[in-house]
Give the backbone structure.
Amino acid sequence: MQRRDPGAPVMCRKSPGIVVSKQLLRERLPYRPLWWRLLRGTEAFAYVLMAPAILTIAVVVLYPTLTAIDISFRRVDIYTPGSARGPFTLTNYARLFGSTAFWQSVQVTLSYMVISVAFALLIGFGTAILLHQRFRGRTLARMMAVLPWAIPPVVAANIWWWILDPSFGLLNWVLLKVGLIKEPVNWIISPGPALAAVSMVTVWKGYPFFVVMTLAGLQAIPQDLYDSAAVDGAGRLAAFLHITLPALRQILALATLLTVMWVFREFAIIWVLTGGGPMRATETLAIMTYTEAFAHFRMGVGAAVGVVTLVISTIASIIFIRQSRKEFY
Amino acid sequence: MRSMLVRVIVLVVAFGLFVPRGGAAPVAIVLRFPSWQQDEPGVSEWWKEQIAAFERTHPGVRIEFTKVPLAEHTDKLIAQFAAGVPPQIVHVPAQTFFVFADRGWLESLDKYAGIEEVKRTYHPLQAKTCVWRGSTQCVLMLNYGYAWVYNEKLLKASGRSVPKNPEEYLETLKAMTDKEKNQFGIGIPTLPGFTMVAHIAVFVYGAGGRWTDEQGSPAVLTPQVRQGFQWWKEAVLSASPLGQESGRLRQLLMEGRVASYNDGPWMHGFAKRANPEVRPYLRAAALPVRWTMGGPSNVVAIPKRASEQEKRLVWEFIKSGTTKEAQLRYALAVGGPPPRQDVFIPSEMKRELPFFDVYAAVAKRAVSWIPFGLETKANEFIKVVSEHAQRIIVRNEPVDEVLRDLQKALEALKRQ
């Protein structure tokens, strides 16, 4: 059998006119192991490449989730990895569904979510429409508008705690000065105002996300659509209702979905401002999960609250995803 | 050029890694010591001196003294114990010590040399607090009583003198209050949590009430508890800023915006940081009630999960703080009597501590506010009491009605 000269030139398959030396190819192309060369181009190759990411997700997300689901079905006070597991039981769920505190927590979570997301959406959308106009200082205005997003939640909550202080806070002082209230509002220790306060801070922290998303969406709408509409005699309101809003539908649905998820698991703002109080008025499911597991040392019950939260947020996600499937273009 | 740069970087890194720094001994063992007292004025300096002295006599051992806020301390420790990685030095408020002891997480100290001296020389609360199921599992750091720390200038301006009974006390607080000017007679924490319940206990225990009876059953339907809650409600609604926590209230006292605050001997450390125009007028007096709230404040312990070598080192560290000399320095740092009873504090040393004698007197007659019978459910107890108490001041619900609900809630907690 005749041996080939390793340095002999070969023809490039894709561009037959180009002839290169094999030696040159070996020197320039990186070394690939045998398994790489064998699997390349096959379906298995894709799985091999994805394996590190899948393994990481399995360790970081899947294992804790499965563990939480497992201990939610067992009587566990304090979970220690490797400790003997008790028998399967529905006690935690029975206890949860039979307690008024849980249902109050569900109600608080839904109220908090609806108020926070609705206001963040309206304010964020309105701000984005304004910031989409041409005016002097627009870049600075855009920067200022998204600033709350960049502030860590714990820092933001502490700043607001000082602003909302019932006796010495800025907000009460301003409201008293302008005559909107006659006596200081107990923002942190009265149930109604406390929920309003945590929602207000969540809106302040969350509306910039809508601004960024909406601005991106607005910039992607072709000007031709507005020009055609103008030729057809459409006014500004008609263009807004029939072009801008439908074009932003998908992006707003996505932003709303992500904000709903964020509000559902929001912990830092509520914990720093009210700790879930007063009288559980701001105890969302996220706060309840923590207090049951780490304050009352009932990790089984805490895990059950977490699982219920997971189910509710999954259902919410499915509804939103279905709603947002309608294409505009 | 690039290879030259790489060589320089490698040399610098190698130099940093392998050249001994300042001749310090390499650290072989690190003992973790999380505490809320890491930056607390007064007592933190004592801890730091103890750590420095220990590290000098134990080359290769380093104590990692880190800050964890009191409000989060117990929860974080629980999580660390549950994960099997507790800190080697366990420092907890006495109220939550039982949560750890009850789960069998703490080492018995009875086998260590030196514990007998602690048992012999320490305040009786050492035995009452630290002996759990027959074995000594902690060392008491401080026993205390609350006193009334007030601004004498504001007291005189109100035309009142130091109150001698609860009725005078409440009238004095009201007289020092001018809500129009954001000036308050007293600061009482009203955010749910440990300090809120501690400050309710000042009134409840002051009136002779107790959370539980001698059998450890909830007992909040007594006339004394009712009286205590009434006093607390009156003081909060008429003379205190609402929605505040202890750190902020101490600061307001130091700024002269609240005229008084009920607190333990650690107030000395905070008073040193008061505004110059307020500091000279700060005074302390015993609370004008028959029983003073107080008892064991905080304890140190060793986790069972530590290695034998670590346990031995931690015990040596704890023991170094129980000597007469260390206890004398502790008394001066914390501003109150130390748990070791045979320590004599010369009067010239107490000059820097103007409230010392008051705190020494109240510590002697202080009553522990630990809810015996519910001590292993301390966190939940605090939450239940806070929530019910808030109904009284936020919704203005009748004390009797709230106490009936509180009794039921505590009984349910006891049954769990």
Q: What stands out?
A: The radius of gyration of chain B is 24 Å. Chain B has two domains: 28-143+296-352, 145-294+365-415. The interface with chain A takes residues 75, 78-79, 81-84, 99, 103, 182, 184, 190-193, 241-244, 252, 257, 377, 379-380, 383, 386-387, 390-391, 393-394 of chain B (CB under 8 Å).
